[in-house]
Amino acid sequence: xxxxxxxxxxxxxxxxxxxxxxxxxxxxxxxxxxxxxxxxxxxxxxxxxxxxxxxxxxxxxxxxxxxxxxxxxxxxxxxxxxxxxxxxxxxxxxxxxxxxxxxxxxxxxxxxxxxxxxxxxxxxxxxxxxxxxxxxxxxxxxxxxxxxxxxxxxxxxxxxxxxxxxxxxxxxxxxxxxxxxxxxxxxxxxxxxxxxxxxxxxxxxxxxxxxxxxxxxxxxxxxxxxxxxxxxxxxxxxxxxxxxxxxxxxxxxxxxxxxxxxxxxxxxxxxxxxxxxxxxxxxxxxxxxxxxxxxxxxxxxxxxxxxxxxxxxxxxxxxxxxxxxxxxxxxxxxxxxxxxxxxxxxxxxxxxxxxxxxxxxxxxxxxxxxxxxxxxxxxxxxxxxxxxxxxxxxxxxxxxxxxxxxxxxxxxxxxxxxxxxx
Length: 422
Ligand SMILES: Cc1ncc(COP(=O)(O)O)c(C=O)c1O
Prior knowledge:
The chain is α/β, with parallel strands linked by helices. It is built from 13 helices and 11 strands. The two termini are about 25 Å apart.
């Protein structure tokens, strides 16, 4: 009997999701409307709600978190940078070890991406490397000293840290550097719903915990098909900065001053609107919002199932196979399970081929962006210019970790890895 292939990822979709989508299909209103609004409110409430402790006594309350649904995390990152005023001549600092969205949004706005290497032994951008690059730029030097100086020139304006695989970055260190160099922060939390960070310092209005995505000027989540909560395509921007939220709300729907839902429900003047900017078409339809609302409700259960798989993998593979050194001792959405391959063992590509032969879906997160033809050429970069990103790329593969895998599939993955690794 042929054994069933195990896909790398698979969304957890049940009856409740089906019924929610059917309800919208039958309602007569498919695009952005009441469902999207409810999803935004529920999403913000989740990130502000229990188990978060209340602010320390004597600290002022934080401004309310606003959530804005968009058609992808890529759009959300773009809108957040746009609202921060990023434009031509500006530099946006990003890890090289990420998906292309994180950097391409800078290029949409005519700004340039500056790649920052990983902190050794982790999947996170290195605050030390960030600081060295910023110090060089502030002296009018190019960001990298290699070959007499390479990389783009310009004015550093924003940082996009990536909470890789759901594991939160050291936001305390990054916020401190960004404050000193006057950089905006847009957290790429595409993988991180939900990653609770115990001990997160919110600075002015400190609370002893916060969710990844709520610690920068804005945070962006993805609902792409493989993500922790999935609607096929979609994303959410969250921010406590009300001016930023207002700008994003207008720019995500063509730069029009009123939403189509508002025009539909305001019978007094339903046809009238004004275009106040040349905006974009980035709104999130109700059909998907209905799906998102159910996934949001199920998020804690889906997280617990991924955590149980990760615990079993940890037990089977041991500490030395893990590349993770949680810098915050914090929560982890467990979107990915990265496995470090043993030095001197099978090389990555061969290891992957062996897993695929056994019907195990596998992926690589990420091919560093400074290796990509477009950026390599544009910024005259060589692979060794960011050695830690290169090392992680060569040593790490991602194993399946989806909520409905079940114990049998998890054990099959473990047996396959053990058989190949010897
Ligand atoms: C780190 C990271 N950022 C951003 C994105 C973009 O997400 P979306 O597909 O929702 O635009 C992805 C998608 O895989 C990602 O992995």
